[in-house]
Design brief:
Blueprint lengths: L3 E4 L2 E4 L10 H5 L2 E9 L2 E2 L2 H14 L11 H11 L5 E8 L19 E8 L8 H4 L1 E7 L14 H12 L4 E6 L2 E5 L3 E6 L2 E4 L10 H12 L3 E4 L4 H5 L3 E6 L3 E8 L2 E2 L7 H16 L3
Parallel strand pairs: 7-8, 7-14, 11-12
Antiparallel strand pairs: 1-2, 1-6, 3-4, 3-5, 5-6, 8-9, 10-11, 10-13, 13-14, 14-15
Helix pairs in contact: 6-8
This protein binds 4'-deoxy-4'-aminopyridoxal-5'-phosphate.
């Protein structure tokens, strides 16, 4: 089936969608994005993603597109037109396509931002068998830029990190800066020691995950102890459990780091419980 995608105000078949070669997203990675999951045809944590998008645009002085207030309708319409039960909606906004390539930002009065949305169909997204076995990660040096709190489309290093993991027979990489874990290539990283959930504090060094915020809130509501602070790979190797969170993986157990098993080498009870709580609670308030 040909997907229907959204480009600058129009719903079009994917093979008819067009973006200018002068688009700054293409030439300069001058764009921001969001990924929202869909379960049972409904959007998970949409308000959180919309809020972070506004912040990313603001931090980059990027003009807000005219359709910004209608983003929920556009997401829903794409889910409907593409008949998505479980999957993802990808959204990207760039600074648009000025008349020529130039490092300076174009005048927002004459250059409109480019807005693109498309769906990805992922039947059974929340029932991934991997959640039952867990994933393996390797550690690599974090070589990204210093404003990782802005969700930009410059994903080359995370993409290289994923390839390094693959080459090492692992599923993902945890990035390390000044001896401390920042985050996974496309997810936030956690360890559990003596029933305390430990994850890096917020700052410019990591993306402020929407799933992270929800999971920490649910954990606190369930009287679990949470410490938002840096941790090392050495500490992670001695942890009882480890896991990651993201909008597309939800809560995913990590059972191996740099070839060494974590805990029993199988998903632990706390990560499994957090996954259950996150999915249950998020489905209840999905839109
Ligand atoms: N960190 C990075 C670097 C990411 O790319 C992502 C996913 N986009 C996350 C964390 C998780 O964020 P969220 O829970 O909002 O998907």
């Amino acid at each position: 089936m040909t997907r229907t995608v959204y480009v600058n105000g129009a719903y079009v078949p994917e093979d008819e969608a067009k973006i200018s070669v002068f688009d700054r997203g293409f030439l300069m990675a001058d764009g921001v994005y969001e990924v929202t999951s869909v379960l049972d045809g409904k959007l998970i944590d949409f308000a959180g993603h919309a809020k972070r998008l506004e912040r990313s645009l603001g931090e980059l002085d990027m003009p807000h597109p005219a359709c910004l207030p209608d983003l929920l309708d556009i997401h829903r319409e794409l889910v409907r037109r593409n008949d998505i039960t479980d999957g993802l909606v990808y959204l990207q906004i760039t600074r648009g396509a000025p008349a020529d390539r130039d490092f300076t930002f174009p005048d927002p009065a004459t250059t409109e931002p480019t807005v693109v949305l498309f769906t990805q169909n992922k039947p059974g997204l929340a029932d991934s068998p991997v959640a039952k076995t867990g994933i393996k990660v390797i550690s690599i040096e974090d070589q990204r830029w210093a404003r990782r709190d802005i969700k930009t489309v410059q994903l080359l290093f995370p993409s290289m990190g994923k390839m390094m993991a693959k080459a090492a027979g692992a599923d993902d990489a945890w990035m390390v800066e000044d001896g401390a874990v920042t985050e996974g290539t496309s997810n936030n990283a956690y360890i559990i020691k003596n029933n305390t959930i430990i994850t890096r504090h917020l700052g410019n060094e990591i993306l402020h995950g929407i799933t992270r915020a929800a999971v920490l809130r649910f954990a606190k509501e369930a009287q679990m102890k949470v410490e938002e602070r840096s941790f090392t790979i050495k500490e992670a190797l001695q942890a009882d459990e480890a896991f990651i969170t993201s909008a597309s993986m939800f809560v995913m157990p990590v059972v191996e780091i740099d070839g060494a098993t974590i805990g029993a080498g199988t998903p632990g009870p706390v990560a499994a419980r957090l996954r259950e709580i996150y999915l249950d609670e998020s489905r209840k308030v999905a839109v």
